Amino acid sequence: MTRLTEDMIDEIPSTAAERSEGLRRAIGMDLRALAFRAIDEDPDDFDLSCYSTASIPITAGLGVIGGFSQSVSAILGNMGFRSFVTSKTDIDGIYEALEKGADILFTADDVRYIAYNRRTGIYSDNAFATAAGYAEALDGAAGGLGGKEVLVIGAGLVGTEAVRILTSKGAVVSVTDIIPGKAEKLASEYGASAISSVEDSISSHGYILNASPGLIPGRLIVKGAVISSPGVPFSFDAEGIAKARAIIHDPLDIGTAVMAAECVVSRKKVGRT
Predict the structure, then answer these.
(1) Which residues pair with 149 in a beta bridge?
(2) Which domains does the chain show, CATH number per domain?
(3) Most distant pair of Cα atoms in the chain: their distance
(4) Element (H, E) at 172
(5) How far is residue 186's CA from residue 124's CA, in Å, rounded to a whole number?
(6) Taking the model in full, what pTM does it have?
(7) Which of 18, 65, 128, 167 gives 20 to 30 Å between its CA and that of 10?
């Protein structure tokens, strides 16, 4: 979570509902629907008001990202959960959450962001949840990805999950990374193709899942491209924004929502790593 900064998330608490509605206009699903469909569940099957969620600030390592826990709580509240931020931090914050009867705990340090349903033992990691959410968002914006050529930029944790998920959706997946060997290894694991030149791969694809923090020059974007981009910071300049048909991006919402959805269901998503 160390690339996330306060200025990236400071508007989330005041714009959570507006952002969810913008997502619905872009991909035909609001945030709640996207979160459950990303894990192959019907959102209408769940009453989220039955669940209390606690966002727990962690001061270890680089410390609390200003507004992070408040933003997580706002996202969850907009989905329909009963949500609160603990007044205490770290272990004392976990204790407070338990004392107040929270069903699902959300917390993050420098390395990992997780949610944990203390009643069922189900937990979710942000890397998987982000990949699942943005793959589903790309699928929705594209009107289905079956048989379509999709590029995944970045062969890290999110990119690895994205390649697996997109392949399972029937997409023809290529992967690229600034370290070609990482792309080749990932591609070989899931029957995808590796492209050594990042620039060439971007300029030849109309459907992209960007799991990289690197900036993407607008000159490389195909006109009418559909891009699902969880990477932070935001990777696109004015030219790229103008040329793309859709760029789906937020710093926190989609990953958090899928984490919450996964913790509500009684099983892990089938086939996840």
Answers:
(1) 172
(2) 6-126+253-264 (3.40.50.12150), 128-248 (3.40.50.720)
(3) 54
(4) strand 172-176
(5) 22
(6) 0.92
(7) 128
